[in-house]
Amino acid sequence: MVVGGGLAGISAAVALQESGVPVTLVESRPWLGGATHSFARGDLRVDNGQHVFLRCCTAYQGLLRRLRAEHLVDVQDRFDVPVLRPGTEPGRLRRSNLPSPLHLLPALARYAPLPVADRARAVRAAAALRRLDPDDPDLDGVAAGTWLAGRGQRAWARQALWGLFLTSALNAEVDDAALGLSAMVCRRALFGRPDAADIGVPLVPLDELHGGPALRRIAEMGGTVRLKAKVEAVTTDPKVVVDGVPMAADAVVMAVPHEAAARLLPAQALPDPLRWDELDASPIVNVHVVYDRKVLHGPAFGGARVPRHAPFAAAVGSPVQWVFDRTAVSGLRSGQYLAVSLSAADRWIDMPAAELRARFLPELRRLLPAARDAGVREVFVTRERRATFRQRPGSAAARPGAATRAPGLFLAGAWTDTGWPDTMEGAVRSGLTAARLVRRHLEGVRDR
Predict the structure, then answer these.
(1) Interval 242-258: pLDDT, tens
(2) I need a labelling partner for 186 at 20 to 30 A (CA). Which of 132, 239, 301, 378 fits?
(3) How far is C-alpha 378 from the geometric centre of its chain's CA atoms?
(4) pLDDT of residue 382
């Protein structure tokens, strides 16, 4: 049995069914997809938050293939990000055809938001970062910002360069992020294969990319999905109490947030000492703006050499971090729908929608010249208070492995010790690991 229908639970269920292990997946909500879901707002289909992936996210792309949904995403031919800055020409980060790790060097050399001296210091810091071993436990106790500052990266460089990658990847400000995970992200995405950082985006709402295909695929393979089913307890038998009824299982994968796993699992299954509460949670806020015309496209960038149609752009020197064109995905027929994605959003999470509107509409006008004369049809806000665990120094030591102390009970979720940040890729990898351990457990039971 798999408890939890997010990407971790879906991955575990599909992998087990493919290997001939019958699965019942139990989810308390009326949909699959977990933190990646959509809802209707008038004529729009709105995702709860903007989700992207990189070409190096191989497990996630493997799940899409298993769900027969790989055609519902688009991956850049080449890493290419317009970088907006108020009052100046946009910058651009675009990889070259050089081999790794030189493929991003020309873009960094021309990166206008940084002074020339800071660009040179950034190259030296990148070389030092590339030499770090992300698996070194000592790195978990160090903040990325502290380490970067010690390599000549001033506050502006940490925000305008390193923050573009690390804040969105770790849902943490650079100065607060764990160095080990930061090194892992940079080594995988920036210093690995030249195409590793190419960005992929959904072409459809998230419920059509994950939840719907997962329901169909699990059913096709003979599995069972129970939605709106509340799990009340788990025993070491193992049994899962669902809506008051105990259900026996040969093995159980708990693919739920760490708070729920700590509450539902029997005490004898939990590690000692239990440190999951140290993972805490970090929020993400999205500010959605519907304009009466296009404001994020080639001419909006002041003639800078950027893609004629940019589905997204980063921003520096502004509270805006990333802005995404959601027009086609949402079903909007005229105008343009933008979503401003704000990671590490502690300062924004409790701010009323009216105040967020008053703050971010002027910021978009500062960043996008075409927005200054555009009419605003609608502004609304979505909030994920517990979007990820807080990926700060010390968090790696609090992440548990997939096995518990009780035979037949396993953990999955991006918060477990996957070696990856709390991302869609991490969630999928955790589900695959749990499925592998379940198969090994069942083989051991049969051999007794």
Answers:
(1) 999 999 999 999 999 99
(2) 301
(3) 26
(4) 97
